Amino acid sequence: LNLLLAFVPVAVLADLLGWDPVLVFAAAALGVVPLASFMGQATEELAGHSGPRVGGLLNATLGNAAELIIAIFAIRQGLLELVKASITGSILGNLLFILGLSFLLGGRRHGQQRFHRGQAGVNAISLMLAVIALGIPSLFSHTIEAKSHDAVEYLSLGVAAVMMLIYALSIAFLFRLPAQADAAHREAAHHTPRWSLRRALVVLSLATALIAWLSEILVGAVEPVVVSLGITEFFLGIIIIPLVGNVVEHLVAVQTALKNQMDLSLAISLGSGLQIALFVAPLLAFLSLLMGHPLTLVFNEFELIALVASALIAVLAAQDGESNWLEGAQLLAVYFIVGLAFFFLPA
Predict the structure, then answer these.
(1) Which residues of the chain register pLDDT less than 70?
(2) How far from chain centre, in Å, is Cα 277?
(3) Taking the CB of residue 291, how many other CB atoms lie within 10 A of it?
């Protein structure tokens, strides 16, 4: 991944010299990947210095920082549909693509794999509740907006506040789980630091600043890329942007599955989807008010159907405490079918 750091100066240079927007977008997207990796490493090192409890909290709040930064710059540009599509795409990517790939590759290497169904079930049910919460503003918005547009915004903010509260409670619940039921959470939080505290803070600050810079370049190239390639902004947000922001986390989830550490693999994939739904999306709804572009949690019917379907599949996959390569192939098939449908969906 470190080789991709070469795309950071390329993206900056391409933007300054006005090169082809597709090249600018691709270079910025590739440059974000290693920077997100450094941000993740710095977070782990800080977690190692702060202990398992604070470390778990750091991982829970900074796990999707790169995607959050990209979304903030998209909101600044008024690309609200792109942001909502990226939220949907991140949840779909974690529940279908990454979970499926982990099941497939882990199952091919180890056969039938087992994981703690209690912890995976808690995350899966929390995701289902999060999707229901996201669906409420979407289902009621048309009726409410006929009477008052402001009421739709207030509904979204109220739902966002409740979702953030549930997320905080879920973290508190994980901290209080018995040791045998919380193995993946403790393994994710526990890390022997290799960097000094100062180095971790410097790397985190630099990576964050550079990701912010590249995010501005990336978002600025979105509209020209849409026109140039003939794809929709919706497809770009639901497939491409989530992969860019989460690729490092995705790789870790698959690697742990290949090591037969399925508890940790599910904790990463389901936990990341949960973080997007219950923390990142509500936080963006509040931050958008400060930027003058209010983001309501109103998703279109296609996004809503895909979210509900992916959450249901995740619940079914987690309920028996076992996985195999065929289940992985089935999850991947659903993801590619959904992606194909979104590709042909008109603007």
Answers:
(1) 51-57, 59-61, 63, 177-191, 347
(2) 8
(3) 15
